[in-house]
Structures are given as structure tokens and as C-alpha cells.
């Protein structure tokens, strides 16, 4: 069985491009070109140079000794929290801005919920001197004021989406409308392994630098390239896709995906898509998503804004359905405790998204000699207020 996208962008039964007719030329241009552009020597050279000098890669693969002792197994952390801007998202936006330039685009649009992807996009647009418009729900603009300020400092225009629930999905609708109206000069940077083909595959390839590095770093440290398990949190699924990518076809490597159960899987306030989701279409791809009996998308909830998404990318839907991936959901409370524990044991304050991945160590037991790599997708600075409120710090 293959765990990568086929030519039409399908992972098993999931994926594809379910888009309005008017968006077809835009997606088609990208689909025809993305693989050949990525394979160009000059592209690879520029991409890797920027990952090194601007993002700060390779990020360390760190053996977490105190955490390993506590859970009686060998735990390595892949330190995506040390990337410029504080998370893995910039790996993808660097890749896409270079793609946009190669395709002759001089204007970038993006949508953002919590603002993290908006900041990562505004960052690379500043780097390249390219015009940037970020669509954001009006409610999110108020909730995420610091990220709005960051985007403005970086020179981006933040346009409020005022329709519907005034959150992420409305911002997405506005971005799509913009792209339809500006097909020639504009590239739409999507922030996770979601959206119509070729986005999930393209974003996974850009993020695959994570597992590419894990392989040689583990070889240096342990004399073997493959861990026993790779663990990552899944919102849309981009940090997870990057961490799994080079291990997908090696079934000796266990793949563990961690979703947000919010206040409990059956509380009505959760984002545990694998447990609750059904097959449907969201943002142009066929995947698993949380929906009502009549197919209306359910509002997701998680204490971590980055996991607060009603679906998962098609790669993850396939990993779930095929049984290749083990899916675990973690509540807000479990994640917050795991974040505090990592801070105290290792001196690393994680993003609350990443804390979800660490929380599985309480229930999922590993053997003493297992090598478990946990992808530490981002740092916790952005979440300080949530930690303060939760722990009354
Ligand atoms: C955005 C974000 C996530 C979730 O997005 P994925 O596409 O699932 O990786 C996870 N961790 C951090 C730190 C994030 O900023």
C-alpha cells in the first residue's frame, strides 16, 4: 500500500481536488508545475540555503534524558520550536514563496485562524519584498491581537472576514474568492496538508525536511536511521506529515498521531477528527471531518488554537483508515499538564499543540529500549497567557 499521494492527489480514497470551476485554472497551473519546479537544482539550492541561514536548520534532535527516565523509554525531541518564528510552519511558507516566485506571482494571499500561519506567511513575504494579504475572521482578529500586530509589523495587510461565524472558514472563503478574482498574479499559500491537490502533497514535501533530518541525526546518535515510533500532534497535519514522511513506507516505524479531544471526545467540544469524523469534503479535498447528520461542518474546539480544525488532511485520513497510523486523542487538561511537565523536566516550554503529543506518554507505554521521536512542533511563548490562566501563575 502507498501512503503518498498519487498523480491525482489521492491517498487511498481521500484527497483529490473538489473545487469550483473558476478555481480550476489556478490549481491546474500549480499542479502541472510543482514537482518539476521543486526538482530544479536552483530551487533546491535556494530552499536549503534559506532553511539553513534564515530558519536555522537543521533543528536539533535532542535526547531528553530526564523525560526518558520518567517514562522508562528513549525519547528524542525534534526541536521545530527552534525554527525562526517559533514553529515548523515557516518550512512550508519558505517553500511556497519560492514556488510563487518561480511561477511569476507577485502577490500572496493566505488565510489564518489563530494567526500563526498568517505570521509565517507575512514573514516570508517581507523576506522577499512581496505584497501580502492575510484574511482573518473578525472575531479571530480580536482574539489574536498580538499575531495581528506581528503581521502588520511585517508589512502584511490583514483583511477581516465579516461573514458567517467570522472565523477561519469564513476567512478561507474570502481567500478563495480573492484567488478566483486574481488568477494571474496571485499565489495562495495554504498553511497545512489540507486543501485541493496539489497542496497536501506539496506542503508535505516541504515539511519532509523534518524526517529527512531525523534520519541522519538518529544515525549519528544511535547508529540507525529509523526510530521505533514517531509521534506528532495533528491539526491539519503538516508537522506530522513532515515528521512521518520518510518513514511512511517502513512499517517497522510506528506512526502515532495525536489529536485534540478538547473537553472530552464526547463533550461536544473537541477536535478529535479520527474519533468523530465522517467522510466529507472540506477546503477542496475529500477527507475525514466532523459534521452533523446532514453534513454541516461542526465547530471544533481545543484549548490550542492550532489544533482547532474540524478535519485532518487526506494523508492522515488514509493513515487512520488503513491502520498505518495509531491515533490517540488528548484532552485540554492532559495537554496542559504535559506542557508543564516538559517545562520542569527539560527546561523547554512547548506550544500547547505540541504538549498534546507529550501527553500520550502517561497512557501509551513503550519498551525500555524503544526509540521514540516526538516532534516538538513549536514553542510556548505564544501560549503564555493560556498557561497563566490555566495554572494561575
Ligand atoms: C499550526 C500549528 C500546529 C498544527 O498544524 P499542523 O498543520 O497540524 O502541523 C501544531 N503545532 C504548532 C506549534 C502550530 O503552530
Automatic annotation (TrEMBL):
| Residue ranges of domain Tryptophan synthase beta chain-like PALP in the record | 56-378
What reactions does this protein catalyze?
Answer: (1S,2R)-1-C-(indol-3-yl)glycerol 3-phosphate + L-serine = D-glyceraldehyde 3-phosphate + L-tryptophan + H2O
**Name of the protein described by the UniProt record:** Tryptophan synthase beta chain
Give the matching InterPro entries: Trp_synth_b_CS (IPR006653), Trp_synth_beta (IPR006654), Trp_synth_beta/beta-like (IPR023026), TrpB-like_PALP (IPR001926), TrpB-like_PALP_sf (IPR036052)
Q: Name the PANTHER family for this protein.
A: TRYPTOPHAN SYNTHASE, TRYPTOPHAN SYNTHASE-RELATED
User: E.C. number, please?
Assistant: 4.2.1.20
Q: Pathway membership of this protein?
A: Amino-acid biosynthesis; L-tryptophan biosynthesis; L-tryptophan from chorismate: step 5/5
Oligomer and partners: Tetramer of two alpha and two beta chains.
Q: Which domain of life is it from?
A: Bacteria
Amino acid at each position: 500500500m502507498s501512503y503518498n499521494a498519487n498523480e491525482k492527489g489521492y491517498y487511498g480514497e481521500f484527497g483529490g481536488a473538489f473545487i469550483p470551476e473558476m478555481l480550476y485554472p489556478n490549481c491546474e497551473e500549480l499542479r502541472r508545475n510543482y514537482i518539476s519546479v521543486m526538482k530544479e537544482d536552483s530551487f533546491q539550492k535556494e530552499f536549503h540555503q534559506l532553511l539553513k541561514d534564515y530558519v536555522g536548520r537543521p533543528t536539533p534532535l535532542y535526547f531528553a534524558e530526564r523525560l526518558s527516565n520518567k517514562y522508562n523509554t528513549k525519547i528524542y525531541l525534534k526541536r521545530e520550536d527552534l525554527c525562526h518564528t517559533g514553529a515548523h510552519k515557516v518550512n512550508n511558507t519558505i517553500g511556497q514563496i519560492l514556488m510563487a516566485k518561480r511561477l511569476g506571482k507577485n502577490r500572496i494571499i493566505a488565510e489564518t485562524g489563530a494567526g500563526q500561519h498568517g505570521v509565517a506567511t507575512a514573514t516570508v513575504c517581507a523576506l522577499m519584498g512581496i505584497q501580502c494579504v492575510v484574511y482573518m475572521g473578525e472575531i479571530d482578529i480580536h482574539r489574536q491581537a498580538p499575531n495581528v500586530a506581528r503581521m502588520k509589523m511585517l508589512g502584511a495587510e490583514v483583511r477581516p472576514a465579516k461573514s458567517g461565524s467570522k472565523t477561519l472558514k469564513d476567512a478561507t472563503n474570502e481567500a478563495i474568492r480573492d484567488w478566483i478574482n486574481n488568477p494571474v498574479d496571485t499565489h495562495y499559500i495554504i498553511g497545512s496538508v489540507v486543501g485541493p491537490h496539489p497542496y497536501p502533497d506539496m506542503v508535505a514535501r516541504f515539511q519532509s525536511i523534518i524526517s529527512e533530518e531525523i534520519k541522519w541525526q538518529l544515525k549519528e546518535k544511535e547508529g540507525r536511521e529509523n526510530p521505533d515510533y514517531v509521534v506528532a500532534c495533528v491539526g491539519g497535519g503538516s508537522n506530522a506529515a513532515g515528521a512521518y514522511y520518510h518513514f511512511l513506507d517502513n512499517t517497522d516505524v510506528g506512526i502515532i498521531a495525536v489529536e485534540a479531544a478538547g473537553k472530552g471526545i464526547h463533550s461536544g467540544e473537541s477536535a478529535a477528527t479520527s474519533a468523530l469524523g465522517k467522510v466529507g469534503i472540506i477546503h477542496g479535498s475529500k477527507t475525514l471531518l466532523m459534521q452533523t447528520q446532514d453534513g454541516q461542518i461542526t465547530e471544533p474546539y481545543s484549548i490550542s488554537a492550532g489544533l482547532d480544525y474540524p478535519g485532518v488532511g487526506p494523508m492522515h485520513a488514509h493513515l487512520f483508515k488503513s491502520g498505518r497510523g495509531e491515533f490517540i486523542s488528548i484532552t485540554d487538561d492532559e495537554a496542559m499538564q504535559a506542557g508543564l511537565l516538559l517545562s520542569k523536566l527539560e527546561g523547554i516550554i512547548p506550544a500547547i499543540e505540541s504538549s498534546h503529543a507529550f501527553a500520550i506518554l502517561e497512557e501509551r507505554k513503550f519498551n525500555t529500549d524503544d526509540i521514540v521521536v516526538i516532534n516538538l512542533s513549536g514553542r510556548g511563548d505564544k501560549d503564555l497567557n493560556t498557561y497563566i490562566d490555566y495554572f494561575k501563575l
